[in-house]
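Quick one, T. Sequence first:
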Amino acid sequence: MTGKTERGKGRRNKRGRNGRMTVRGGEDGKRRRKRREHRWERGRTGRGKGKADRRTESEEERGRAGHGRERCSKAEREGRKEEGKREMNQTMDAIIPSYRPGEKFYRLLAMLKKQRLPLGKIIVVNTERRFFDEERAREAAGERLELHHIEKRDFDHGGSRNLGVSFSDSELFLMLTDDAVPRSTELTERLSSAFLRGERIGAVYGRQLATKESSFDERYARRFNYPEQSFVKSIEDLPRLSIKTYFMSNVCCAYRRDLFDRLGGFPSPMIFNEDMVYAARLLRLGYRIAYEAEAEVYHAHCYSGLQQLRRNFDLGVSQAEHPEIFSDLRPEGEGKRLIKGNLRELLREGRAWKIPALIWKSGCKYLGYLLGKNYRRLPGRLRSALSMNKGYWRRRGGK
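Structure tokens:
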């Protein structure tokens, strides 16, 4: 018995991989059986999965995630389509006051005709019929041209533009001067798209580029006032930007018609600067103004010192007549920055010989501005003599 038992034990004994003797039928065997039973139970109930199962599950998860991404992308595409539809549904008319228009005016009309986002109407409010070539204008603008003539005595910077708006029924309208020529066929598209950039944007103005005929000081002023980067501003920027918060030029500017009507249009009568007064009222209503750097027009003047004096006289008058907007602002600071920057550029480019001309023109601007701010102290005849807009003073009887 003893020998058989020992031989049986020997058959059950087995040398393990680590060299130690194990007993197959002993306690270790019981633990192995329990582990096998446990693995089988986990597999049966689904609480445990092998590599194949885990791989299948991962593939299913990726499939579900992929399907979710596809649905998200589809939703985004639908959103972009709807946004595009809203953009394209924003009808836009162009409104252009003109007086003795030159070659730039007809180039302007031709470029408006070619815009990728077509205009509804091109409304021209022309001062003095005898200086207007209607046949050429219709040839340049096509069937979209709508022409209205007024007398010179009736022209007003605010009122004449309001008259043009009254002939439009579009959601947006684009104000242009008769010497602002679009750089590309994307002008209206860029301006219209900018209204969708953020909430409560009430107006969008474009970038003005100098031309070959621009004087050196005007070239610098264009870069100073119209940078390469677009931005949006609100009334909250007033402590930081001061008077530049209200800067918005209707040489090239698109407006929302609903807000324009709500604000009563441009102020009228207005000697000059109707766009800044409107901008201030718009911002104070809680709306914002966008500057779109990619909506570009060529616009140039080559004013002499005396012409700058008269222009800035009208600017000073406009601010004096609207103390509710301008009384607490000091625009002289922006003027100093402009002059200093222009001076540094002349020195850097080795054109110091132009500095006397810069000083002369800058002095004329500042003198004209001071005289305009204090126009009530001047006799009536002198006011008219100092102004570019003499009709304004005639309508007021020189007062």
